[in-house]
Fold this protein.
Amino acid sequence: MRIDRGLRRVGAYVRSAPGTYAWLAILFFTTVAMHHMSPEFEQEFLRQRSTNIHELSNNPVRVLVQSAMWIDGAHWLPYAVLYTVFHAQAERWLGTLRWLTVCVAAHVLATLISEGALLRAVNEGMAPHSALNTLDIGVSYALAGVVAVLTYRIAEPWRYLYLAVVLGVYCLPLTSTPTFTDLGHFVSVLIGLGCYPLVRGRGRQWNPKETVAALRR
């Protein structure tokens, strides 16, 4: 009975964030597919679906969509955890359409801005010409945007602690030897924070103190 009750709760939770878990399912199947590719084929296959400058110049819409369907690496389980902790919470709070708007805005705008910065670096001789075909796939920009927008889900003063951690995680790489990906992540955070108009009227804010008190009862 307890197992059945637990399974029903898991099923209800998954159904409450359909976009998150549909996306996660796609990532599962594409990750399995990657495990069946030879290293040489995988690199060329992913490069054709990468949002590098060359592909963006020729097929921008196609690669912006396809690049979000593959994981930069072969480990799916960590993303299942991250999607449950952040994406599912944001989708349940904002609703699927608003959540998806944050994801698309962060993924697309951060990609264009970071690749634009890379193109400028190539033109000014600060990066090699081969960078035009660099491999750039994955879902981390959308994730960073959602992590940031969840700042508004948390009640004060805990919100400021959460925001400090988020900024620390995504700003720290920019202080050492930043890459265009580090810039993209930081831009994604700014975009997520800029999505404040989407969070208005989305219900009561979450207070960690109240949750802890309820668990102690």
Q: What stands out?
A: The first helix runs from residue 2 to 15. The two ends are 24 Å apart (CA to CA). Residues 91 and 130 are 38 Å apart (CA to CA).
